[in-house]
Design a protein that fits this description.
Layout lengths: L3 E4 L3 H12 L4 E5 L22 E4 L6 H11 L3 H8 L1 E2 L4 E4 L1 H14 L3 E5 L12 E3 L7 H11 L5 E6 L2 E3 L9 E2 L11 E6 L1 H13 L20 H6 L27 E7 L6 E4 L8 H8 L10 E3 L2 E6 L3 H4 L5 E2 L2 E6 L9 H19 L12 H12 L31 H21 L8
Helix pairs in contact: 1-10, 2-10, 3-4
Length: 451
């Protein structure tokens, strides 16, 4: 059986190599460290955790990432097995001992007879590699990033990434908000509008100016682009900058006050095909996460807002996956190349490893002359895959954590806003359905059996 090459020994690449080998397919894992390091890594070990040591919530009943943990355990994930073996006390979260975790992952990979590790930088995947997985993360080497940019037609993959918060639609108070596109363009649910009075607007600007910010690390010191300034930087340029910019009220009519124009309007734009997630338009920010939650919940209609993702600006490297990748993570312009991990536009350790798991299994299926089978979109791993390969809008695609907002609505009676149960009960319904559908997928022989 011919080998599959995996470029990058982080969480996604390590998981992809493990899944290939467990399926009986030889894997060659290429890792440039320690031959060439990055500004963020400290060691040369595989699967080094460069930021937090937390894999976030392990609650599989009421948290989407906890459900993803459970699904990956059922799919023989090396990353979750090592995490469980080296977990440290962290309440309801799965946090790990960094050194023990990465040592365990590297030891397991080196011990497997079908995995070989090569410490070398791959600047460009050779043309005779008919199957390769690129899992090089947000710190992809400049040479490889340039190669990928050439293959995809992208002018640049590495840039100062502007991210706006994303709100779960079901957490918005529609007694204060309404659906309408500016000047009634588009469909009826493209945008949700939050009207502000002069007093509410002034208080919001004051809060932005006083909010505590996260300052990027020195190695992330790329200047701001004028087209994607943080909202607090715009506010510093004048109190009316936002009211004449992303919060301008023109072309919008509050149905509760049709004769009076709002002083300002915060708009949220539909961000996924299911209409469950809404992006806060123009609200990219460097405020610390706790400050974002506190300040944004002062906006009308967001008092109880739940955030699928909070905002930020940082150096990043990722593909516009909805446009460039097919549903099995292959590059449309060169199907012999798959992508996995953060470079695909997923955010977070666990999400990156999950996409690596799928990339490895898809590549293994092809090596065995089988058609790769997609996990159900009602599962956490399937919902994440569906989002990055087509569920998200290519025009506004940004990195995303797994969240219940990526799932199709759970079954049951719905109200006018498509809601069934609320809060913890709604999340439980997602989890119950996901378990059933994942079991059917596995029992149907669609998930590859471990060798």
């Amino acid at each position: 059986m011919r080998e599959v090459h995996v470029i990058g020994g982080g969480l996604a690449g390590s998981e992809a190599a493990w899944q290939l080998a467990r399926s009986g397919i030889p894997a060659v894992l290429h890792e440039m460290r320690p031959v060439r390091s990055t500004p963020a890594h400290v060691t040369g070990r595989l699967a080094e955790l460069v930021c937090s040591n937390s894999f976030r919530s392990d609650d599989a009943e009421h948290n989407a990432v906890g459900l993803l943990h459970e699904e990956m355990r059922r799919l023989d994930s090396l990353i979750l097995a090592a995490g469980d073996a080296h977990r440290v006390p962290a309440g309801g979260a799965l946090a790990v001992d960094r050194e023990g975790f990465s040592t365990a992952v590297e030891s397991a990979l080196l011990a497997h007879p079908l995995i070989s590790l090569r410490r070398e930088e791959i600047a460009s995947p050779p043309a005779d590699w008919d199957s390769a997985i690129v899992a090089t993360g947000p710190l992809t080497s400049p040479a490889l990033a340039e190669c990928v940019a050439t293959l995809t037609g992208a002018k640049s993959l590495a840039f100062f990434d502007a991210i706006a918060p994303i709100v779960l639609r079901d957490s918005i108070d529609f007694s204060r908000a309404w659906y309408q596109s500016r000047y009634d363009k588009g469909t009826g649910t493209d945008y949700i509008n939050l009207p502000l009075t002069r007093a509410e607007y002034d208080a919001f600007v004051d809060a932005l100016l006083a909010g505590e910010r996260h300052l990027p690390k020195d190695w992330e010191g790329t200047p701001f682009f004028e087209g994607c300034l943080p909202i607090e930087v715009m506010a510093e340029r004048g109190r009316l900058t936002l009211a004449h910019g992303p919060m301008k009220p023109v072309g919008l009519t509050d149905p509760r006050n049709p004769g009076r124009r709002s002083y300002a309007v915060a708009q949220l734009r539909q961000d996924n095909a299911l209409g469950t997630l809404y992006n806060m338009v123009g609200f990219q920010t460097m405020l610390k996460h706790g400050e974002q939650v506190r300040i944004l919940r002062t906006l009308p209609g967001l008092a109880e807002a739940e955030f699928a993702r909070l905002g930020g600006m940082h150096r990043n490297t990722f593909l516009n996956s909805p446009r460039l990748l097919d549903d099995t993570l292959r590059l449309k312009a060169r199907p012999g190349l798959r992508f996995a991990g953060q470079i695909t536009g997923c955010e977070g350790y666990v999400e990156s490893a999950a996409i690596g798991l799928l990339a490895g299994r898809f590549a293994a299926a092809e090596r065995m002359d089988r058609v790769p089978s997609l996990p159900p979109p009602t599962t956490a791993i399937g919902a994440l895959l569906a989002h990055i390969t087509g569920g998200a809008k290519a025009e506004t695609f940004q990195p995303m954590n797994v969240t219940f907002g990526l799932f199709p609505d759970p079954p049951g009676e719905s109200d006018a806003h498509g809601r069934t149960a609320r809060g913890r009960e709604r999340k439980r319904l997602y989890a119950v359905r996901a378990r059933v559908d994942l079991a059917r997928w596995i029992e149907g022989g669609h998930a590859l059996a471990a060798q």
